[in-house]
Amino acid sequence: MTLSLDKVLITGTSSMIGRYVNFGMQPSREELDITNGPAVFTFVKKVRPCAILHLAALTDMRYCEEHPDEAMRVNAESTETLAKAAKEVNAKFVYVSTNAVFDGSKATPYDEDDVPSPSTVYGKSKFAGETAVKKYAGDWLVVRTSRVFGGGKKGDKRFVGKIISQLQEPEIRAIDDCLDTPTYGKDVAQEISELMKEGRTGIVHVTNSGIASRFLQAKYIADFFGYRGRLTPVRLKDFELVPPPLRNEALVSKTVHLRSWQEALSEYLKTEW
Fold first, then answer.
1. What structural domains and CATH numbers belong to the chain?
2. Is the pTM above the cut of 0.85?
3. Which residues are catalytic?
4. Helices 37-47 and 78-88 meet at what angle, rounded to 10?
């Protein structure tokens, strides 16, 4: 049976990935409060989707560290509720997860066969969500991604947007001793739709290809805009961040191969900035 994208229920449509999803039913937070269990079941039974794409999450890592109960409620308990509701109406359940389910200690990128060992509250809450999906959903797909950028001038409050906001400064500092796989939210959204149409199940990593430190990403952005100031590499220990950034946030997939992060970032900077 072919999956109809028009009948997919989407949560988190204002997220870094969700804003690029151009299909399905997209209720507002007021219409669907994912933390209200009875309301979730009522809504899902009413609209009877063929699939649920669950993008909504609490992603601010510092906030999660400071509010662990809320992080678990939003990222784990709500995911469990949605997974159960999906099974009740025989809908596929697609859950978007994160590199933070790993502790960042591996020297090379994490693939789908690596065993999760989260070290942050955010990572633990998302891994608990993954566990709930496996336990309670019938037909399920977990898509892990990493270091997502997107949103443009109005919506990008993350790394790319922060670097661009500093282009008038005489110096920009960026961490040079950690690994990322920078990934365009638009590419993730497109690949998820393809995976859903293919009927893919299990765990899949979806990122742009290539590995880069944040310093290398900052340099790419600075060069793109012709920045004339000083770009300074710094170490993780130079920043007192809560929680400390993982040394390795890079993911790789055995089956999904997207364009390079440089090509994706170039398009993003050209079209949305």
1. 5-148+183-205 (3.40.50.720), 150-179+210-272 (3.90.25.10)
2. yes
3. 122
4. 30
